[in-house]
Amino acid sequence: MLAAVIDAAAREAAIDEYTFGKNVLAALPVLAAADFRVTVTTLQGVIRLSDYVITRCVEAVVHGCDLIEPVEPDQTALQITGEALLSVLDSKHPELVVLARAVPLRTWVAATGRRVPPPGLEAALPVMT
After folding, report:
1. What is the CA radius of gyration of the chain?
2. What is the pLDDT along the chain (129 residues), one digit of tens a residue?
3. What pTM was computed for the model?
4. What span, in angstroms and rounded, lies between the C-alpha atoms of 103 and 93?
5. Helix 75-92 vs helix 49-66: angle between axes, to the nearest 10 degrees?
6. Which residues pair with 28 in a beta bridge?
7. Which of 128, 126, 102 minimizes the C-alpha distance to 116?
8. In whole angstroms, what is the distance from residue 37 CA to residue 12 CA?
9. Which residues of 103-120 are buried (b: 16+ CB within 10 A; e: fewer)?
10. Phi then psi for 42, rounded to 5 degrees?
């Protein structure tokens, strides 16, 4: 069901001359004034706003890195994504966090998507399923 909703939204956005940057600029003042402790209801359930924003950042950066011609992420977004993914790794495989931190940040983030994992991390990736 969710895949169909996402597919329909993406197709509609393409028809409506959707511009990502324009929508981000419109959202910035709202996010700047937001109380990140509140919860929001999504199709998947209730989540804190701070966690929701982080998961959207992770999705955008990881999937951008997965493209045939990868999208180079903003350094702040890359840092947020790397730390969030290390936090998930720490909850599942704490013994591998030091190894993951030794991998260049961009390589670590890309490996959590569909890229080849760095040596020693194969069994732990993907960290989010």
Report:
1. 16
2. 667 877 777 777 666 665 666 777 888 898 889 999 999 998 889 999 999 988 888 888 888 888 878 888 889 999 999 999 999 999 999 999 999 999 999 989 988 887 888 899 988 888 876
3. 0.73
4. 16
5. 100
6. none
7. 126
8. 32
9. bebbebbbbbbebebbee
10. -115, 180
